[in-house]
TrEMBL record:
Enzyme nomenclature, EC number: 3.4.16.-
Family: Belongs to the peptidase S10 family.
Protein's name according to its UniProt entry: Carboxypeptidase
Species, as recorded: Cephalotus follicularis
The entry's keywords: Carboxypeptidase, Glycoprotein, Hydrolase, Protease, Secreted, Signal
Compartments in which it is found: Secreted
């Protein structure tokens, strides 16, 4: 009798301990509902050591994929957006968990308080959304050797093509889906590079092997650096951030960068551009050039802290021994000579073959509205005259001013008010409306915009 009572007492104490432990256990940092639909690694064929076949010596691009939250048509017709981060060498997990992914890391003061919250402006509301850590060596991606890291946009595009086609092969339903490649900042070079590569490669492939590219979108992009570097002084001056003397000093530094480009001294030209930006920071005293209204920089460190947790890495399909870097110095160094090289010619090719969206947060000082307009007006494209004369329309979301949209034919340019360099972070819902309207060709991004050119100009264009 005593032994039975004792057994019952032990069982009761054990049950209490289990209940108490369950009630005090912290919720998972990455709850099941926030897990990607798919995530993992896409193999990249070596370019330096072409005999490498062992996976231990291969390179891989890390990806996370989120299916559309709401499929408005059949899944095989649901657009697929691909997101590339800038840097060079910054991880697309920044875009995933701080900008446009379905869940965001919340602001917090301590690691213990880090958690996710739903993103009201996620870009996968009605589209599939694929994040790629590009180039290899970036974020959770793996470079077999430092020599394998791309040093130019041709190799970047070659690797991205392998990753994208590898991803599409994971599911037969992916094959027919319309693909839109998007990205920001230094992806102002990656996006045109992979778009150009796809459209050049597709005709040489069988129909079953082609990528169904329908458009490219670049946010606050560095695309034609030699033109863009010349705009910093005038932009800051007319914003009232520097005076005329400082404007002259900055223009001299800009001129030096341009001259180095003309001489083909790419490494020193990159250094000269960095000096221009450093001077601008010192002259203005701003917390960040990415948004001149911010008192503190973007809190990208939250993503780094979040991705340091073993349980998060495990849920994403990453080895717990992997160390996440927000931006890789090794990748940045590899592409140092690439920084000042223009890919404007690639955009000129793309705009003739597919649709192009350029968008800017108007508070950005690094890759700003003025810098984009400066290179766009130099484009060699038969439609550029009509585009430049097209009306810049007031854009509203829910009857509130959101920015401005200018469109002609296949080229659209959007200015997003209240946003800096990371447009989706600053204007989540408006950025969602923008990308959805552009992809679906609705609202101010509708197909027929020819009437926007003043009638008395039409006969002469």
């Amino acid at each position: 009798m005593e032994s039975t009572t004792m057994a019952k007492l032990i069982l009761f104490i054990s049950l209490l301990h289990h209940i108490f432990a369950s009630s005090t256990q912290s919720p998972p940092l990455l709850p099941k509902e926030a897990h990607p639909t798919k995530s993992g690694y896409l193999p990249i064929n070596p370019t330096v050591n072409t005999t490498t076949t062992n996976n231990k010596n291969r390179s891989f691009i890390f990806y996370t994929f989120y299916e559309a939250q709401k499929v408005s048509s059949t899944l095989s017709e649901t657009p697929l957006l691909i997101w590339l981060q800038g840097g060079p060498g910054c991880s697309s997990m920044l875009g995933n968990f701080l900008e446009l992914g379905p869940w965001r890391v919340t602001n917090s003061q301590t690691q213990e308080n880090i958690k996710l919250e739903p993103n009201p402006g996620s870009w996968n509301r009605i589209f599939g959304l694929l994040f790629l850590d590009n180039p290899i060596g970036t974020g959770f991606s793996i470079a077999s050797t430092p020599q394998e890291i791309p040093r130019n946009q041709s190799l970047v595009a070659e690797h991205l093509f392998q990753a994208i086609t590898g991803f599409i092969k994971l599911d037969p339903l992916f094959k027919e889906r319309p693909v839109y490649i998007t990205g920001e900042s230094y992806a102002g070079k990656y996006v045109p590079a992979i778009g150009y590569y796809i459209l050049k490669r597709n005709p040489r492939l069988s129909v079953s092997e082609r990528v169904n590219l329908r458009g490219v979108a670049i946010g606050n992009g560095l695309t034609d650096p030699v033109t863009q570097v010349t705009t910093h002084a005038v932009n800051a001056y007319f914003l009232g951030l520097i005076n005329e003397k400082q404007k002259g000093e900055l223009e001299k530094a800009q001129w030096e960068a341009v001259e180095l480009v003309k001489m083909g001294n790419w490494s020193m030209a990159t250094d000269a551009r960095n000096m221009v930006l450093h001077m601008l920071e010192n002259m203005t005293g701003l917390a960040t050039l990415y948004d001149f209204t911010r008192k503190v920089p973007y809190e990208t460190n939250l993503v780094t802290e979040f991705l340091a947790y073993g349980e998060v890495k495990k849920a994403l399909g990453v080895s717990e021994s992997m160390v996440y870097e927000e931006c890789s110095d090794v990748v940045e160094d590899a592409l140092h000579e690439d920084v000042m090289k223009s890919v404007k010619y690639m955009v000129e090719f793309l705009v003739k073959k597919t649709r192009v969206l350029l968008y800017q947060g108007h508070l950005d000082l690094r890759d700003n509205v003025v810098s984009t307009e400066a290179w766009v007006k130099k484009m060699k494209w038969e439609g550029i005259g009509r585009f430049l004369l097209a009306e810049r329309k007031v854009w509203k979301v829910n009857d509130v001013l959101a920015g401005y949209v200018q469109k002609w034919g296949s080229l659209s340019h959007a200015v997003v008010l209240g946003a800096g360099h990371l447009v989706p972070t600053d204007q989540a819902v408006n950025s969602q409306v923008m990308i959805e309207d552009w992809v679906l060709e609705t609202g101010l991004f509708g197909k027929d915009q020819e009437e926007d050119v003043p009638p008395h100009f039409k006969g002469s264009l």
